[in-house]
Amino acid sequence: MTIAWEGSMEPDLFGTRRDEPIGSGAVILRGFALDPAMLDEVARIAGLSPFRHMQTPGGRRIGVEMTNCGALGWVSDRRGYRYEPRDPLTGQLWPEMPPRFRQLAEAAAALAGFPGFRPDACLINRYVPGVKMGLHQDRDEAGFDAPIVSVSLGLPATFQFGGPERGDPVAKHSLNHGDAVVWGGPARLNWHGILTLRRGEHPLTGACRINLTFRRAG
Ligand code: MD3
Ligand code: FE
């Protein structure tokens, strides 16, 4: 694996920082995840556990298509939101988390001040134009001490980042191909979402955005 971006939390010679803190416990590492092999791995995983629309506990179809890799995968159906070791579509274990995924997530977490992050779950979200993810909190994991690392691939999206309360003001940040974000500590339970994806064409993904989120779920 090549880590394309040698991150430093110090300003470089020109006084610029390529890490963008976006609040207490959250930092964007621009261009940290530019390895094109990431997308090959996503295609391989989707060959084993296909992208699918899950259902909310209320019976609505989730617009974002999802799959997972790793020991645990996030699932949603009439019975609720939870992590499961098996893909309910295939009955098989979720595909293994590729070493390059785990290494990238661990390196991003360490740079952001979370050494020792060992993700056991990787949720893979696919957005096509017109699809969004409404404001929510991530609280289906067994504990909240570990950070979450996200990697954005393909079309750009606008990320909404709020606070710990539903009504807290929301800041907007653009997430582009290759950006990694680390959320931990005080930001771990903040409300967040993705605005409706605008149409476009990305040279590597076509008309979609892929987001990977690495978590310690169990
Ligand atoms: C901030 N995914 O899968 S990743 C999700 O781009 C999710 O697909 C979005 O929210 C996406 O749950 C955003 C960034 C993210 C993930 C987890 C967070 C931001 C977070 C947890 C706490 C605070
Ligand atoms: Fe989330």
TrEMBL record:
<dbReference type="InterPro" id="IPR027450">
    <property type="entry name" value="AlkB-like"/>
</dbReference>
<feature type="domain" description="Fe2OG dioxygenase">
    <location>
        <begin position="118"/>
        <end position="218"/>
    </location>
</feature>
<keyword id="KW-0479">Metal-binding</keyword>
<dbReference type="GO" id="GO:0035516">
    <property type="term" value="F:broad specificity oxidative DNA demethylase activity"/>
</dbReference>
<dbReference type="Pfam" id="PF13532">
    <property type="entry name" value="2OG-FeII_Oxy_2"/>
</dbReference>
<dbReference type="InterPro" id="IPR005123">
    <property type="entry name" value="Oxoglu/Fe-dep_dioxygenase_dom"/>
</dbReference>
<keyword id="KW-0408">Iron</keyword>
<keyword id="KW-0223">Dioxygenase</keyword>
<dbReference type="InterPro" id="IPR004574">
    <property type="entry name" value="Alkb"/>
</dbReference>
<dbReference type="InterPro" id="IPR037151">
    <property type="entry name" value="AlkB-like_sf"/>
</dbReference>
<keyword id="KW-0560">Oxidoreductase</keyword>
<protein>
    <submittedName>
        <fullName>DNA oxidative demethylase AlkB</fullName>
        <ecNumber>1.14.11.33</ecNumber>
    </submittedName>
</protein>
